[in-house]
Protein backbone atom coordinates (compact mmCIF):
# COMPACT_ATOMS: atom_id res chain seq x y z
CA UNK A 1 0.00 0.00 0.00
CA UNK A 2 1.57 3.24 -1.12
CA UNK A 3 1.23 6.12 1.27
CA UNK A 4 0.11 9.30 -0.42
CA UNK A 5 -0.54 12.53 1.46
CA UNK A 6 -4.32 11.97 1.41
CA UNK A 7 -3.85 8.39 2.65
CA UNK A 8 -1.64 9.59 5.50
CA UNK A 9 -4.18 12.28 6.44
CA UNK A 10 -7.00 9.72 6.34
CA UNK A 11 -4.99 7.30 8.51
CA UNK A 12 -4.29 10.04 11.07
CA UNK A 13 -7.93 11.16 11.17
CA UNK A 14 -9.41 7.66 11.36
CA UNK A 15 -6.77 6.54 13.86
CA UNK A 16 -7.56 9.49 16.13
CA UNK A 17 -11.32 8.96 15.93
CA UNK A 18 -11.10 5.21 16.38
CA UNK A 19 -8.66 5.51 19.28
CA UNK A 20 -10.89 8.06 21.00
CA UNK A 21 -14.04 5.96 20.61
CA UNK A 22 -12.23 2.79 21.67
CA UNK A 23 -10.89 4.28 24.90
CA UNK A 24 -14.21 5.96 25.78
CA UNK A 25 -16.16 2.74 25.14
CA UNK A 26 -13.58 0.49 26.78
CA UNK A 27 -13.04 -1.67 23.71
CA UNK A 28 -9.84 -2.55 21.93
CA UNK A 29 -10.94 -1.05 18.64
CA UNK A 30 -10.21 -4.08 16.49
CA UNK A 31 -13.71 -3.97 15.02
CA UNK A 32 -13.06 -0.48 13.73
CA UNK A 33 -9.46 -1.03 12.65
CA UNK A 34 -10.17 -4.24 10.74
CA UNK A 35 -13.24 -2.73 9.07
CA UNK A 36 -11.32 0.39 8.01
CA UNK A 37 -8.38 -1.59 6.67
CA UNK A 38 -10.50 -4.09 4.73
CA UNK A 39 -13.17 -1.72 3.41
CA UNK A 40 -11.25 1.49 2.78
CA UNK A 41 -7.76 0.23 2.08
CA UNK A 42 -8.77 -3.12 0.55
CA UNK A 43 -6.31 -4.99 2.75
CA UNK A 44 -6.72 -8.79 2.98
CA UNK A 45 -8.54 -9.59 6.21
CA UNK A 46 -5.79 -11.81 7.63
CA UNK A 47 -3.27 -8.98 7.33
CA UNK A 48 -5.81 -6.47 8.68
CA UNK A 49 -6.42 -8.62 11.77
CA UNK A 50 -2.70 -9.01 12.46
CA UNK A 51 -2.07 -5.28 11.92
CA UNK A 52 -5.03 -4.45 14.14
CA UNK A 53 -3.54 -6.50 16.96
CA UNK A 54 -0.45 -4.31 16.98
CA UNK A 55 -2.51 -1.10 16.85
CA UNK A 56 -4.70 -2.31 19.73
CA UNK A 57 -1.61 -2.99 21.84
CA UNK A 58 -0.49 0.62 21.47
CA UNK A 59 -3.90 2.25 21.96
CA UNK A 60 -4.86 0.00 24.87
CA UNK A 61 -1.60 0.82 26.66
CA UNK A 62 -2.38 4.53 26.37
CA UNK A 63 -5.87 4.01 27.81
CA UNK A 64 -4.53 1.75 30.55
CA UNK A 65 -1.96 4.31 31.69
CA UNK A 66 -4.62 7.03 31.85
CA UNK A 67 -7.04 4.83 33.81
CA UNK A 68 -4.22 3.68 36.09
CA UNK A 69 -3.40 7.29 36.99
CA UNK A 70 -7.08 7.89 37.72
CA UNK A 71 -7.25 4.83 39.99
CA UNK A 72 -9.88 3.14 37.81
CA UNK A 73 -8.07 -0.17 37.32
CA UNK A 74 -9.06 -3.40 39.08
CA UNK A 75 -5.72 -5.23 39.14
CA UNK A 76 -7.06 -8.54 40.42
CA UNK A 77 -9.58 -8.74 37.61
CA UNK A 78 -7.12 -7.40 35.02
CA UNK A 79 -4.44 -9.93 35.97
CA UNK A 80 -6.90 -12.83 35.97
CA UNK A 81 -8.32 -11.94 32.56
CA UNK A 82 -4.89 -10.96 31.27
CA UNK A 83 -3.19 -14.25 32.12
CA UNK A 84 -5.95 -16.35 30.59
CA UNK A 85 -6.24 -14.04 27.59
CA UNK A 86 -2.53 -14.52 26.91
CA UNK A 87 -2.89 -18.28 27.32
CA UNK A 88 -5.86 -18.27 24.93
CA UNK A 89 -3.90 -16.22 22.40
CA UNK A 90 -0.92 -18.58 22.56
CA UNK A 91 -3.25 -21.58 22.21
CA UNK A 92 -5.01 -20.04 19.20
CA UNK A 93 -1.70 -19.15 17.56
CA UNK A 94 -0.44 -22.72 17.94
CA UNK A 95 -3.79 -24.21 16.86
CA UNK A 96 -4.08 -22.07 13.75
CA UNK A 97 -0.52 -22.80 12.70
CA UNK A 98 -1.83 -26.34 12.04
CA UNK A 99 -5.34 -25.45 10.86
CA UNK A 100 -5.48 -23.07 7.91
CA UNK A 101 -8.47 -20.72 7.62
CA UNK A 102 -8.93 -18.92 4.32
CA UNK A 103 -9.85 -15.25 4.11
CA UNK A 104 -13.48 -15.90 3.16
CA UNK A 105 -14.00 -17.91 6.36
CA UNK A 106 -12.27 -15.16 8.38
CA UNK A 107 -14.66 -12.61 6.87
CA UNK A 108 -17.66 -14.75 7.84
CA UNK A 109 -16.37 -15.24 11.41
CA UNK A 110 -15.64 -11.53 11.72
CA UNK A 111 -19.11 -10.57 10.44
CA UNK A 112 -20.84 -13.05 12.77
CA UNK A 113 -18.88 -11.73 15.74
CA UNK A 114 -19.91 -8.18 14.86
CA UNK A 115 -23.53 -9.24 14.44
CA UNK A 116 -23.67 -10.99 17.82
CA UNK A 117 -21.94 -8.08 19.58
CA UNK A 118 -24.27 -5.56 17.94
CA UNK A 119 -27.41 -7.52 18.82
CA UNK A 120 -26.15 -7.91 22.38
CA UNK A 121 -25.62 -4.16 22.70
CA UNK A 122 -29.09 -3.42 21.33
CA UNK A 123 -30.60 -5.98 23.73
CA UNK A 124 -28.81 -4.40 26.70
CA UNK A 125 -29.90 -0.92 25.61
CA UNK A 126 -33.53 -2.06 25.47
CA UNK A 127 -33.21 -3.85 28.81
CA UNK A 128 -31.66 -0.77 30.44
CA UNK A 129 -34.64 1.28 29.25
CA UNK A 130 -36.95 -1.06 31.12
CA UNK A 131 -37.99 -3.30 28.29
CA UNK A 132 -39.62 -2.82 24.95
CA UNK A 133 -43.25 -3.65 24.35
CA UNK A 134 -45.23 -3.85 21.13
CA UNK A 135 -47.02 -0.66 22.24
CA UNK A 136 -43.66 1.15 22.32
CA UNK A 137 -43.04 0.05 18.75
CA UNK A 138 -46.51 1.14 17.62
CA UNK A 139 -46.09 4.54 19.22
CA UNK A 140 -42.51 4.80 18.02
CA UNK A 141 -41.41 5.47 21.60
CA UNK A 142 -38.15 3.54 21.53
CA UNK A 143 -35.21 4.84 19.60
CA UNK A 144 -31.52 4.20 20.05
CA UNK A 145 -31.13 7.92 19.34
CA UNK A 146 -33.01 8.69 22.57
CA UNK A 147 -30.85 6.32 24.61
CA UNK A 148 -28.74 8.11 27.22
CA UNK A 149 -25.33 6.77 26.29
CA UNK A 150 -23.44 9.02 28.68
CA UNK A 151 -25.00 7.48 31.78
CA UNK A 152 -25.82 4.02 30.44
CA UNK A 153 -22.85 3.27 28.19
CA UNK A 154 -21.43 0.77 30.66
CA UNK A 155 -24.71 -1.18 30.69
CA UNK A 156 -24.91 -1.38 26.90
CA UNK A 157 -21.45 -2.79 26.25
CA UNK A 158 -21.03 -6.56 26.43
Automatic annotation (TrEMBL):
<dbReference type="InterPro" id="IPR051598">
    <property type="entry name" value="TSUP/Inactive_protease-like"/>
</dbReference>
<feature type="transmembrane region" description="Helical">
    <location>
        <begin position="105"/>
        <end position="122"/>
    </location>
</feature>
<protein>
    <recommendedName>
        <fullName>Membrane transporter protein</fullName>
    </recommendedName>
</protein>
<keyword id="KW-1133">Transmembrane helix</keyword>
<feature type="transmembrane region" description="Helical">
    <location>
        <begin position="77"/>
        <end position="99"/>
    </location>
</feature>
<feature type="transmembrane region" description="Helical">
    <location>
        <begin position="39"/>
        <end position="65"/>
    </location>
</feature>
<feature type="transmembrane region" description="Helical">
    <location>
        <begin position="7"/>
        <end position="33"/>
    </location>
</feature>
<keyword id="KW-0472">Membrane</keyword>
<dbReference type="InterPro" id="IPR002781">
    <property type="entry name" value="TM_pro_TauE-like"/>
</dbReference>
<dbReference type="Pfam" id="PF01925">
    <property type="entry name" value="TauE"/>
</dbReference>
<keyword id="KW-0812">Transmembrane</keyword>
<dbReference type="GO" id="GO:0016020">
    <property type="term" value="C:membrane"/>
</dbReference>
Amino acid sequence: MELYLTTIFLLILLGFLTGTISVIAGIGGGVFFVSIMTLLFLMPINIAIDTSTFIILASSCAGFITYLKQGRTNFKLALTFGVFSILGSVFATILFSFIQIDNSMLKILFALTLLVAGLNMIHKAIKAKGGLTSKDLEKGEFSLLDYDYKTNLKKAIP
